[in-house]
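REVIEWER CHECKLIST
Item 1: Sequence provided? yes
Item 2: Single chain? yes
Item 3: Sequence as submitted:
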Amino acid sequence: MVPRRCVALVAALLLAQAAPAAPQEVPGLGARDPRQGVPADRAPWNAVGEIEASTNRCTGTLVGPRSVVTAQHCLIDSEGRALVRPGEVVFRLGGRMARAVAIQAGQGFDIALEQPWRSDWALLTLDTPMGEGRALRLAREPPREGTPLVLPGWQHDRPGALVADLNCRVLVMGTFGGQGMLVGHNCAGTMGSSGAPLIAHDGSGGYVVVGVQAKAALGRALGVAVPGFSIPQR
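Item 4: Structure as written out by the authors:
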């Protein structure tokens, strides 16, 4: 049975997205901003780069030598009707740039509605390897409630800087109605954090991506992410 707080979280997200935002409200941030700069050249941050596609600017993560995971809605064209062609997607990391040559995306995703959220993921194949020695692993098991997380991202209000919420956690792992199975969390991350990784320790001194940021609430440090275990491993 899904905990009641899961239902409350979904209600908060949906209401926040439907209601007009107050001038001070932005997605994924509350009255207090816990984000801080992190060194983009050190693990695990050195796997986290910027995605550019059409007019979209999001975050993506290396999960293989030539594989990057991000949110599918980051790849929608300027007319909002289809995904961009692979060659129109650019991945930037540490002063280097690569283009996508293939896109594998979640099935059943309605581009106009950007739903269901469980399908809001995409795997990019790059034209050049960038992940050697830095790629992170997608989790193969669901995270437990209370698992400590970090959420790094290249976000619009901090141009040119990689920032992260270093002290957040999994609130719930469960089925969010018609949106499907998702990770609910209380990590702060605003515009540009779409596609960003929810990173946890893997128990052996390394790191693992337990989720990929899909949606954030207006005016609150709350969000939902596609579980890492539901994304095919290459």
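Item 5: Key structural point noted by reviewer: The chain has a mean pLDDT of 92.
Item 6: Recommendation: ____
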